């Protein structure tokens, strides 16, 4: 009997000790650690809608250089790929045949001048003789006619000499424009034909044109008040570049809508002195609509993708993250406009759903969205900021 009482007492004591141990463990367990997350209040900024178009650059002036006279190439006076100036001699043709023609015509002119002087003298003598009735009227008229013939012959020879001197001058083939010259298509010693043989090509390099087509709806809604005289600012990006590094302006707008495509042809011009733009280059043109409106701005990295949807995580009651579907708008550097889904005053997780998800309580760390170096409107003052985005 005593043995059973002792066993029961030992069991009760052990249960009491176990309960005390559990209570002590529960009291010593640390509180749950919340994930620290950077959060920020969304921004509201005045923005312009940007439109991007693809194009290929064209040179304002491009020349397929051909000789004005036929002949043999005597020398090539340029280095292929060089910058040339208007008037620089590029090819020299054999000038000796042309010089011989000039010399022959000059001799013929001297002979014609002598004949003309004789005809003038005989005409004056005929007038005096006619006054004294020493010759007939027919003879006097014949001498006057001879004088007119000698004058005409001299004029014809002088015209031939002018043409021959031009041909002699044209044996020096010069550059008609400033620009960059290509390679020589025909080399020294070859015969070239006037107006047929393409010696080389030259493109001007002080400016480049970019033609692009704007659809009628976009033009009427965003650019209807733009004219060529207003010099609407545009920026351009070449293939392989991340920045829109070149600034230009619109200098031509076509006079009608293309009825086949429903687009309007527009031209932008880019002036640059560093020879970095080449005709034929593929490029992207960006220009801003004239209308300005307020938009919610958030960091691009705050946006998550869920199948076809875009979403952000907002901070709700008790610092619990909430799932919000959004519709995104224009991109401004590392920032993005949101057209629906967020309101002014909303607080979002700025680094997106990389480490957290909806329904998760967090420890918010408030930060400010950085807008330095970002232009939300495209004006002459901040176009360089846009170019860096």
UniProtKB/TrEMBL annotation:
GO terms for biological process: response to antibiotic. One of its GO terms (molecular function) is transmembrane transporter activity. Pfam families: Beta-barrel_RND, BSH_RND, HH_MFP_RND, RND-MFP_C. Gene3D superfamilies: 2.40.30.170, 2.40.420.20, 2.40.50.100, Helix hairpin bin (1.10.287.470). Residues 63-198 form the Multidrug resistance protein MdtA-like barrel-sandwich hybrid domain. Residues 102-167 form a coiled coil. It is found in: Cell inner membrane. Residues 232-289 form the Multidrug resistance protein MdtA-like beta-barrel domain. PROSITE patterns: PROKAR_LIPOPROTEIN (PS51257). Residues 294-352 form the Multidrug resistance protein MdtA-like C-terminal permuted SH3 domain. Residues 1-18 form the signal peptide. InterPro entries: MdtA-like_b-barrel (IPR058626), MdtA-like_BSH (IPR058625), MdtA-like_C (IPR058627), MdtA-like_HH (IPR058624), RND_pump_MFP (IPR006143). GO terms for cellular component: cell envelope; plasma membrane. It is a lipid-anchor. Residues 103-171 form the Multidrug resistance protein MdtA-like alpha-helical hairpin domain. It comes from the Bacteria. The keyword Lipoprotein applies. Keywords: Coiled coil, Lipoprotein, Signal. Belongs to the membrane fusion protein (MFP) (TC 8.A.1) family. This is Putative lipoprotein component of a efflux transporter. It comes from Pseudoalteromonas carrageenovora IAM 12662.
